[in-house]
Automatic annotation (TrEMBL):
Record field: compositional bias (Basic and acidic residues): 221-231
Keyword annotations: Endonuclease, Hydrolase, Nuclease, Signal
Coiled coil: none
Cited InterPro entries: Endo/exonu/phosph_ase_sf, Endo/exonuclease/phosphatase
Renumbered residue ranges of the record's region Disordered: 212-231, 293-312
Organism for this UniProt entry: Rhodococcus navarretei
Entry protein name: Endonuclease/exonuclease/phosphatase family protein
A GO molecular function held by the record: endonuclease activity
Domain Endonuclease/exonuclease/phosphatase, chain residue ranges per copy: 40-346
Length: 355
């Protein structure tokens, strides 16, 4: 369970993006500090066909088991999993029940833009349909999705999602209108989605800001993916800063409330120094006064979190756990075991935070 001095709450069931509390012991007083471990892991639990992840998780799948072993070895209390195909709550339940011993009693998942057909020729191949014409690159709706698991209650009714936010509505964006032409105004910014998932940690609300911007590659001289990656990261930075131009999928405007506690999680596909991302992309978040960067490390790999092909792009730091300045960072690491095989080209990153 969590690293709390007192007993954690338990729950009788999980629901897709919804949970209900059934406490079995008294929680600590709201002003009593609690230490929790928050982690992000691009687990590569994506599959080439819709429904395949659900099928795999119904039985014993070697890669899913290896992913679960990584998670269990680090025992996070709050976890974002990137590249987890969206299928409603089916895969979420199966992975928790069959592979994680049911330890996460709360979860949130929601639709993403990957694989959702735009009806437009976004990749300029003179044909409609296919992964390049989806709002976010994907073979089917929900591929490369994400899920938040938590041992603490999720305030599902207060979750904010930004799947439908239009790129054109970001002031001074890098939207490459010369490339996209007449369809520019229709483009959604988030390649998957951006979520604000409020979690109740013994009376204190922790906002989990989850995202997975597109890789800044697989394009041409117009650098459309690099510019999208930059602006997806900027959306998170502007949300933290409380930008009033933002609107969520319910039409509610504005960003995070001033002074709110948060932790930004996810594979941002941007290294502070190396790689193909637009200069300063991840710095938009790292340089914010309210953001702490624990800069976690692992033995022999420094701050790198991804084991990509050598020499290009090589190992990079692209996965982040970034808490707000009101939280105390007790420890932080990149989990990089010495084993030859790993279930993903990314490594799990965690931070222990005092709430």
């Amino acid at each position: 369970m969590s690293r709390l001095a007192a007993a954690a709450v338990t729950l009788t069931f999980m629901a897709a993006g919804c949970s209900s509390v059934n406490p079995t012991a008294a929680d600590p007083a709201p002003d009593e500090p609690s230490s929790i471990r928050v982690a992000t892991f691009n687990a590569s639990l994506n599959r080439p066909a819709p429904g395949q992840l659900v099928t795999d998780l119904q039985g014993e799948n070697a890669q899913a088991r290896a992913v679960a072993d990584v998670i269990v070895a680090n025992s996070p209390d709050v976890l974002l999993v990137n590249e987890f195909d969206y299928s409603g709550d089916d895969a979420v339940r199966l992975f928790n029940d069959n592979y994680l011993d049911g330890q996460y009693r709360y979860s949130f998942t929601a639709p993403v833009n990957t694989g959702v057909d735009s009806g437009l020729d976004l990749d300029k191949d003179s044909a409609l349909g296919g992964p390049g014409d989806a709002w976010g690159f994907g073979q089917f709706p929900g591929q490369y999705g994400m899920v938040v698991y938590s041992k603490f209650p999720i305030a599902t009714e207060s979750v904010r999602t930004f799947q439908n936010f239009l790129w054109k509505d970001m002031p001074d964006s890098l939207l490459p209108r010369d490339y996209y032409g007449d369809v520019s105004d229709a483009l959604r910014l988030s390649s998957k989605s951006h979520w604000d998932v409020p979690i109740d940690v013994n009376g204190t609300t922790l906002h989990v800001l989850a995202s997975h911007p597109t890789p800044p590659s697989f394009d041409g001289p117009e650098d459309r993916n690099g510019k999208r990656n930059h602006d997806e990261i900027r959306l998170s930075a502007d949300y933290i800063s409380g930008a009033d131009y933002l609107y969520d999928d319910k039409g509610v405007r504005g960003g995070l409330d001033e002074g709110a506690s948060f932790v930004m999680l996810g594979d941002q596909n941007s290294d502070p120094v190396d790689g193909d991302s637009v200069a300063g992309a991840i710095a938009q978040v790292l340089d914010l006064p309210r953001v702490q960067d624990p800069a976690p490390t692992s033995d022999g790999h420094g701050t790198d979190t991804a084991d990509f092909a050598d020499p290009t792009p090589g190992d990079l730091r692209v996965d982040y756990v970034l808490p707000s300045d009101d939280l105390t960072v007790l420890d932080s690491q990149v989990y990089w075991p010495n084993q030859a095989e790993h279930p993903s080209d990314h490594r799990l990153v965690w931070a222990d935070l005092e709430i």
